[in-house]
Amino acid sequence: MGCSVIFLDIDGVLVTTRSxxxxxxxxxxxxxxxxxxVGLVKELCDLTGAKIVVCSSWRLSHTTFDLVDIxxxxxxxxxxxxxxxxxxxxxxxxxxxxxAWLEGHRGExxxxxxxxxxxxxxxxxxxxxxxxxxxxxxxxxxxYRILTGKDYKEGAKDVC
Length: 160
Ligand SMILES: [Mg+2]
What we know:
This protein has helices at residues 17-23, 35-48, 58-61, 64-73, 94-104, 137-148; strands at residues 3-8, 51-54, 81-86, 109-115, 126-127. The protein is an alpha/beta fold and 160 residues long. Helix 2 (35-48) runs parallel beside helix 6 (137-148). The protein is globular. The mean pLDDT is 91. Magnesium ion is lined by residues 9, 11-12, 116-118.
């Protein structure tokens, strides 16, 4: 049995106008992650067994080592990530890169969700947060439904 994957963006999902504005008095930088968003992504992984693959442009400006460190220091430990944790750098289109990643893992993946503020809202596999606020509860519910085919119920656990 395969596993499911969360293609995860950073800006507009975990690094947001909201997180910066609310954290700057506490000394947080513009790259500090929204901790509620981090918590929701972790819960999604814990409940569904999904692993994260990063599709953010941050992968173009940081080494994999640095990205792992940034995620870890913001509360997302390496155990939450797929062993092949970055989409390839192929084109300005994230869909081309996501399709290429999926093609490279054909037969291994049961399902996926894309959480990104800049993909198509009409994509049935996409959750599209508002850039200023990042991932919200309604986004979590939609992502859970896409990954499991079921509505979220408190206490549910559906690890693959
Ligand atoms: Mg973004």
